[in-house]
Design a protein that fits this description.
Layout lengths: L17 E3 L5 E7 L2 E7 L2 H17 L3 H4 L4 H11 L5 H14 L14 H14 L4 H20 L11 H8 L12 H13 L7 H10 L3 H5 L6 E2 L4 E4 L2 E6 L5 E6 L8 E4 L2 H17 L24 H25 L12 H15 L3 H8 L4 H23 L7
Antiparallel strand pairs: 1-2, 2-3, 4-5, 5-8, 6-7
């Protein structure tokens, strides 16, 4: 009986879908959803490895061929097109970071060829060559992880190569998220008193008083308008942010955006010092004329610079450095003259003022839910971390005061 089995040029039996071309190369053909597909190999062993991968992909619903034709750049575009809910500021930031640090390197690779080791190598190159810090690395990972997740869900790849990579990077570089410190009561008092008595820096007192009395985020405060201030009910409405970001055209511009989360939309009661400060600022503007600055339809901004324009966050941070530097220099001289230890102010930024308010609030309020709502924390664990830190400090203080008062020996 004649042998009807198909064989290669070495006499080996070929399976269904396998064949050998005249040039010696091997070929495997299969059909998925009515479409014929083909892979090639130089040897039968290599072909059967690819054949096994094809069968596994079919079983798992993976389109391996497409994954080897579509790049990470293509996948990023697809991801961004589907993220219609992204705020423009977030979209611009993601696009800027991706185009500048991913597109011309990892972005050119085929999505199906990118492995965990490739991601780790890429992340390490950003740290080594671009001097990336933890926050910048978190942004890159926040962009790439959902792009690969989309590739998994669309059946291009089996698993997400970014999974677990950032935690390993943090561990290998001994990265811990830096904790923002609150000003101590002594530092806070020194800072405010110095502003109040300084001819050079006195004009900064109102905005920093409101910072320390409300705990607003910097974008919330520089974007605050008189329409948000209810002096009858003594409340401040937080309903928008003012941001300074690079746009798609490369220019940096001021824009109004909604709070990052729904928790950011809130009402803050006015402390008496805050109300007094705001009313003083309002009287100044009534006498000197309200600034005519308009940003995305918003006008009547509470705090403006000498050009009647809204403040830039970087300008505020630079002002803080100048102020505490000048204070520290004077304090060192005064302490030397008065034969005492100086009360120095550590480096801090505008966000430390928010943290300082939250710390003072936690020191005087036990209802964590109220603290969360006033601060606009979407995750109560953020509030709890600050509250726990304050509670621990208070516990130590309480026991110091208790020392010697309990007769235990």
């Amino acid at each position: 009986m004649a042998d009807t089995k198909r064989r290669d040029n070495k006499g080996r039996v070929l399976r269904t879908g396998e064949s050998q071309r005249k040039d010696g190369r091997y070929m495997y053909r299969w059909t998925v959803n009515g479409k014929e597909k083909t892979v090639y190999a130089l040897s039968l062993a290599e072909l059967r490895e690819k054949e096994l991968q094809v069968q596994n992909d079919i079983a798992d619903g993976i389109d391996g061929q497409k994954a080897n034709n579509i790049t990470l750049n293509d996948m990023f575009e697809k991801y961004m097109q589907g993220k219609t809910e992204l705020k423009q500021s977030t979209r611009t930031n993601y696009t800027y970071m991706y185009k500048n640090y991913v597109a011309d390197t990892l972005g050119r690779k085929k999505i199906g060829k990118i492995k965990y080791s490739d991601i780790k190598t890429f992340y390490n190159s950003l740290i080594r060559e671009k001097n990336f810090k933890p926050n910048s690395m978190e942004i890159i990972n926040t962009i790439l992880h959902p792009v690969f997740t989309l590739a998994v869900r669309d059946g291009y790849i089996r698993c997400n190569p970014t999974d677990g990579c950032m935690s390993e990077i943090k561990k290998s570089h001994n990265w811990e998220k830096p904790k923002r410190h609150a000003l101590t009561i002594e530092e806070q008092t020194a800072f405010i008193n110095y502003l109040a008595n300084s001819e050079m820096y006195n004009h900064w007192l109102p905005i920093f008083t409101v910072f320390l009395g409300t705990g607003m985020r910097v974008g919330e405060l520089i974007g605050l308008t008189w329409n948000d201030c209810d002096f009858k009910n003594n409340t401040i409405s937080i309903n928008h942010n003012l941001i300074y970001r690079q746009q798609d055209n490369g220019e940096c511009e001021m824009h109004i955006t909604t709070p990052k989360t729904s928790a950011g939309i809130r009402t803050i009661p006015m402390l008496s010092e805050v109300k007094k400060t705001l009313l003083q600022e309002r009287r100044k503007q009534m006498q000197g004329g309200y600034p005519n600055t308009e940003i995305d339809g918003y006008t009547n901004f509470v705090f403006t610079n000498r050009f009647d324009y809204v403040h830039n966050p970087q300008t505020l941070n630079r002002a803080i450095v100048r102020i505490y530097t000048a204070y520290n220099e004077e304090e060192v001289e005064n302490a030397k003259r008065e034969h005492r230890e100086p009360i120095l102010i550590r480096h801090f930024s505008v966000h430390n003022l928010r943290h300082t308010f939250c710390t003072r609030f936690c020191e005087n309020e036990t209802n964590v839910k109220v603290i969360q709502e006033i601060m606009g924390h979407s995750d109560i664990s953020t509030t709890m971390n600050i509250y726990a830190e304050v509670t621990e400090s208070k516990k130590q203080e309480t026991f110091k005061n208790l020392d010697g008062k309990i007769k235990i020996s």
